[in-house]
Amino acid sequence: MNARISTLRTALPLALCALALAACSTTDDTADAASAAAQATGSAMAEGGTRIAVTLTFEGETCTYDGPSEAAAGTVELTFVNNTEGYGTAELFGLDEGYSHEDAVAALAERTDGGWPSWMREIGAYDLTPAGETNVWTKDLDPGAYAAFCVDTSPKEAFAAGGLTLTE
């Protein structure tokens, strides 16, 4: 038997058991059980179970950010909805200390070479997302400031969405 299939057959029942125990728990152990279940299934969950949901919806020349502006550091689940007529992508940047989402928007407006300033670090980007499709990206993020953008691929143009500050 393939080792990967064997591992999946073992991990799945364990994850289901952990979820069942979490659902039945009436103590503070619920968060611990949910975190163990997430780790058993391979999904990213920050310590303490913090999950931040962010949605970027790209429509025409508008990129709408739906999510908190500030939260405790943890796992960010970024959903990108491409409602344009062509391919698009979402990009999430970490900003060096002292920079804000507003600074990133200003830099976007001023750029002429198509590049990003050195104080914006690409944290993640989707592969090209066809028109009408949705992608979900999950990553554990440290405290700091972040900026999210939608990018039209033809012609390549970025549209500011929103900013997120993660705290300790």
From TrEMBL:
Q: Kindly state which keywords UniProt assigns to this record, in alphabetical order.
A: Signal
What is the protein's given name? Uncharacterized protein
Q: Which organism is it from?
A: Demequina zhanjiangensis
What start and end residues bound the annotated signal peptide?
1-22
- Name the lineage: Bacteria, Bacillati, Actinomycetota, Actinomycetes, Micrococcales
